[in-house]
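Obj: model holo form, ligand = alpha-methylisocitric acid.
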Amino acid sequence: MGETVTEKILNDHLVDGELEPGEEIGIEIDQVLTQDTTGTLVWLQFEALGLNEVQTELAAQYCDHQTYQFDFKNTDDHRFLRSAAGTFGAYFSRPGNGICHNVHRENFAAPGKTLLGSDSHTPTPGGLGQLAIGSGGLDVSVAMGGGAYYVEMPEIVSVRLEGELDEWTTAKDVILEMLRRLSVKGGVGKIFEFTGPGVETLSAPERMTITNMGTELGATSSIFPTDERTKEYLERVGREDEYVELQPDDDAEYHDEITIDLSDLEPLIAEPSMPDNVVPVREAAGVEVEQVIIGSCTNGGYEDILPAAKMLEDRAVNLTTEMIVAPGSKKASEMLARQGWTAEMMAAGVNFSEATCGACIGIGHVPGSDSVSLRTFNRNFEGRSGIEDDNVYLCSPEVAAAAALKGEIIDPRDLADELDRLEAPGFELPEEYEGAENDIITPDAPVDDGLVKGPNIGDVPLKDPLDATLKGEALLKMEDNITTDHIIPATQDILMYRSNIPKLSEFTLSRVDETFAQRALESDGGFLVAGENYGQGSSREHAALCPMYLGVEGVLAQSFARIHRANLFNFGLLPLEIEEETYLNIEQGDDIEIVDNVAEAVESGQEEFTIRINDDWEATGLLKASAREREILAAGGKLPHVRAQYEEGGAAPADD
Ligand code: MIC
Ligand code: SF4
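Output (holo structure tokens):
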């Protein structure tokens, strides 16, 4: 039987298991990436595992999320990361050099290779034919030490693209259309592989906008085949020798297929406050807009900013609208500046930010109260912009620029009818990507001498092995689609404690219930209860580590998001799936007891657990876990588990 592109790459890297959907597979990782807000734990855990040298072909440490360094703690984190990269053998991208996904695609992403990253948007270079997956930091530490990465083999779904985008529709509309059809849960357990004649009509950066935001579907990854357009991009970033031809075989079989006719699409927009809340821009037209931001790892590239710059040339941003451009990389910034586009946009009333994630997670440019912000980003979860009850819309750079000119949401086609000479700007790659040549420090550069830890950088807490008895209160009951932004928010006041778990834990679930952290700490163990898709969004392992630190023993949810579920195992928290009826009947404050001898049952492979509630009624909780995950859980988490393995087998870094 023929192979899909995904299967070709997986077969090349398979070290354990079979490519059967639902089965656990272990794959070899060629490249890893990490960033500043997940990276400190990655290196602290690398150190705690007793590892001393990066084993993958390439490791890259980026400083991108909190580059304004409002507090010495952020600056200390960056200094620690530089010292860790130098000590253990990773590339170091300096603060302000750009968002990890943008800088990685410009400098390192390569077709046919595997990439693991401690950031949920790691699948971005799928647009270049790289199989890239987001994970928790501890999985990255282990992979960086040479261990395999374990993941449930997803179903491979063909997304057949037909036709061609119209002049005002963009790659962003393709992924918004997928979100409209499939929802934020629609990609769980899947890899989306793009096929069909429409593929060649999209350039590599357009493809990467789509693969980037496949994360919002909950997908394990998204990938395109490689072709002339891939080659074109690699040539322009100066790495044409890394091109590898990757096409599905003619008789490749997919588990499912969806078709998108690019010619049928129109400009779309995601309304507050979920990325799948998608409608045609015309349906949202007329809403007054106070803020417009172009940037992020989805649409912050040179090629994304250029269309907006062309639309703004010799025009002015509406007087009561603020427009900010936050380039995804310093290279993009430098190119736009050298070509005069920055000056053009400034003259139109645009403010420029450094190349950073910033506003995407509520760091800077927080919208005003009761106002509307239009962003070219990928997430608009409530409160993520830095203010509760925010109204954040997600759209393409063209729709964003149109709103900035008009001061309200407007379909750019309608604006073109209103204005003289407003032509569709088109999508263009630079002849050559050049600039920011001095912002990546190579692993062999003699910069630091050993690890440099500031006073806010603490140890990673450990949990004891699993007990026979597990009981406690239902500490918090939550609804569907709880994001990791609810569990551990990413705004500046909280983000600076990412390397200080006792302090960070104080903010656990504060977005849902401000009393939670204190109550959890004072209680004698306990459980979280949630609806569907618990833990969607970011890869931050803090969302498992902090509840663990506060004494939470397990999570009872109708379903879990992929990365968060893995993080729960990694930190020794029991994730049990419950029926809707059980969810509806459990109340916050109920006494919960897992009746079985938990440690024994987990190790023996038992799937059904009996949950006794208030000594009054019983329900079943399902533990869906591989033998490896069960061992990790029983050991109290992956850190003690892998450390014990290293001790048993000598220093050999392995994870199987
Ligand atoms: C995000 O977009 O939510 C983040 C911030 O990039 C996170 C990583 C983090 O929490 O540090 C992600 O997507 O994984
Ligand atoms: Fe940064 Fe936002 Fe992309 Fe996350 S989604 S990596 S915060 S730009």
